[in-house]
């Protein structure tokens, strides 16, 4: 248990921490990665269900520590694989979407161009016409409204990064009133924002959404799950990065909770970690990187050492996290569509978003359901052969937090009532099912909100960096943590010079 000296110690083993440790160890730095959870990837990975063998549940708690989507996408993550010397094989691919309004019984397909904010749809006007219809726009106005929506979104997408940064704190509630004359077009754009989801839509940041429209490499390179023997879902990516760290001579200390960042005269000197027996290990290092959410940093060191506005900013970001209810089920076969009598194509229509509202009013985002994987799903390894894994999620976006599990369950059950009507025989397909409840920080609601986020470098403490999904950046929400990690790697090399192994 003696102290050990390193160039870099990484506090947190989610995606940001793994990326930093893998790349820096490859470049010759002596690295130790420390995390309280006993598997690589921390809360960003997947875990095999102890009750239902062969089913891998993506943890993805999306609380700022390891926020990623239901699959690993391209962009910054793909760049991180490349820099770490990893050449992953992938399974699955990005599916298409449906949008449902259970109140009116309307369903829109081929919605990916609008739902994900891309401007590369083969026929964006068709997408906007469909959205206008599901939003309740009169049929004789649909074409004109779609054209007005296209004009407004094209204008936003054409804005440069400098303009986008200036509009971070500008909200759509005010911007639409000043820039879009057509009332129905304003409602359609707000409806689109609800399906992002960014609820309540009026509070969406114009600047953040400009970056979202541009999409970057995040959407264009969506490729599915990296494969790894013996694990399923998102755990494949985590295991690949962990192997890279160890093959480069780095150390991984799992089951050790980061407890204190050590400093002396505003310089980092190391990290203290504690295991399940409360034994202590000290890691001496001139650099500490953490992928923990920003609001956890003041618990690891004296808040007085942080920039004067850091704690306030962190609490502001944290206020946008939300609770989330879920329902998971193992299916022995795909369900049957009630409308056609055909089996659901769980590979093509893996995701279905729901909005609720009467005719003439904007519909509020009310959850999502999908088929995470199986014999013909986004990730075959996530379920046993010839089986399927289904999930229903309902985050408490916008106006409230769930007071208790009973309230959260009531929202999930309302969605299940509709899903059972959409399918003819869902209950006959179910082999097992379980509810899920995450009370705090279950979803990164701050991603499209009009707030400033923290930089990756703590300016008041030499050698301290945050490779966190709460960091400032222009990437998509599930690509934000890899974006921060890559920025940290560059700063460590610029600020800290050569590693121990390269010194004479």
Quick structural gist:
With 504 residues, the protein is of the alpha/beta class. Helices cover 30% and strands 23% of the residues. It has three domains: 4-90 and 225-318 and 450-502, FAD/NAD(P)-binding domain (3-Layer(bba) Sandwich); 117-220, no CATH class; 322-443, Guanine Nucleotide Dissociation Inhibitor, domain 2 (2-Layer Sandwich), CATH 3.30.519.
Description:
This protein is α/β, with parallel strands linked by helices. The protein folds into 3 domains: 4-90 and 225-318 and 450-502, FAD/NAD(P)-binding domain (3-Layer(bba) Sandwich); 117-220, no CATH class; 322-443, Guanine Nucleotide Dissociation Inhibitor, domain 2, CATH 3.30.519. Helices cover 30% and strands 23% of the residues. The strands form 4 sheets. Strands 1, 2, 9, 10, 11, 12 and 18 form a 7-stranded mixed β-sheet that branches. The chain is globular and about 70 Å long.
Helix/strand/pairing category = alpha/beta
- What is the rounded Rg? 23 Å
Distance between the termini: 28 Å
Major sheet description: 7 strands, mixed
- The CATH superfamily title of the largest domain: FAD/NAD(P)-binding domain
Secondary structure: helix percent = 25-40%
CATH fold-level name of the largest domain? FAD/NAD(P)-binding domain
Broad CATH class of the largest domain: Alpha Beta
Number of E-type strands? 18
- Total helix count? 15
Query: What is the arithmetic mean of pLDDT?
Result: 87
Write the CATH architecture name of the largest domain: 3-Layer(bba) Sandwich
Question: Any low-confidence stretches, pLDDT <50, length ≥5?
Answer: 112-119
Q: What is the percentage of strand-forming residues?
A: 15-25%
How many distinct domains? 3
What is the overall silhouette? globular
């Amino acid at each position: 248990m003696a102290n050990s000296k390193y160039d870099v110690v990484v506090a947190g083993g989610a995606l940001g921490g793994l990326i930093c440790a893998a790349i820096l160890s490859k470049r010759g730095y002596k690295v130790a990665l420390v995390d309280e959870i006993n598997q690589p990837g921390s809360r960003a990975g997947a875990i095999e269900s102890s009750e239902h063998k062969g089913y891998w549940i993506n943890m993805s708690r999306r609380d700022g520590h390891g926020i990623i989507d239901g699959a690993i996408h391209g962009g910054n993550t793909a760049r991180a694989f490349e820099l770490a010397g990893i050449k992953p094989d992938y399974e699955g691919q990005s599916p298409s979407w449906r949008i449902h309004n259970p109140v009116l019984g309307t369903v829109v397909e081929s919605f990916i161009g609008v739902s994900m904010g891309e401007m590369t749809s083969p026929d964006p006007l068709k997408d906007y016409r469909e959205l206008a219809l599901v939003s309740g726009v009169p049929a004789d106005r649909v074409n004109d409204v779609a054209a007005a929506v296209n004009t407004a979104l094209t204008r936003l997408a054409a804005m440069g990064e400098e303009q986008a940064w200036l509009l971070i704190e500008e909200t759509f509630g005010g911007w639409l009133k000043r820039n879009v004359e057509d009332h129905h077009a304003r409602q359609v754009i707000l409806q689109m924002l609800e399906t992002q989801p960014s609820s309540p839509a009026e509070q969406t940041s114009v600047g953040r959404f400009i970056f979202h429209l541009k999409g970057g490499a995040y959407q264009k390179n969506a490729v599915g799950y990296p494969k790894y023997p013996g694990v399923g879902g998102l755990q494949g990516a985590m295991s690949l990065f962990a192997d890279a760290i160890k093959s480069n001579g780095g150390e991984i200390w799992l089951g050790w909770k980061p407890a204190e960042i050590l400093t002396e005269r505003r310089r980092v000197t190391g990290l203290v970690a504690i295991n399940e027996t409360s034994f202590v290990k000290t890691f001496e290092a001139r650099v500490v990187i953490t992928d923990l959410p920003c609001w956890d940093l003041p618990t690891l060191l004296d808040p007085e050492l942080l920039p004067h506005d850091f704690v306030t900013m962190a609490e502001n970001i944290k206020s946008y996290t939300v609770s989330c209810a879920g329902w998971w089920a193992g299916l022995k076969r795909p369900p049957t569509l009630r409308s056609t009598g055909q089996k659901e194509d769980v590979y093509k229509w893996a995701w279905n978003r729901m909005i609720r509202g009467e005719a003439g009013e904007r519909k509020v985002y009310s959850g999502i359901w999908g088929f995470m994987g199986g014999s013909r799903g986004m990730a075959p390894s996530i379920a046993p052969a010839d089986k399927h894994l289904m999930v229903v999620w309902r985050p408490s976006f916008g106006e409230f937090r769930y007071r208790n599990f009973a309230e959260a369950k009531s929202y999930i059950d309302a969605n299940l009532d509709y899903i059972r009507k959409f399918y003819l025989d869902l209950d006959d397909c179910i082999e097992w099912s379980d509810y899920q409840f995450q009370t705090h920080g279950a979803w990164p609601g701050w991603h499209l909100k009009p707030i400033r986020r923290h930089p990756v470098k703590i300016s008041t403490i030499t050698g301290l960096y945050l490779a966190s999904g709460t960091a400032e950046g222009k990437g998509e929400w599930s690509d934000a943590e890899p974006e921060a990690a890559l920025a940290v790697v560059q700063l460590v090399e610029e600020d800290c010079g050569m590693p121990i192994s390269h010194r004479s």
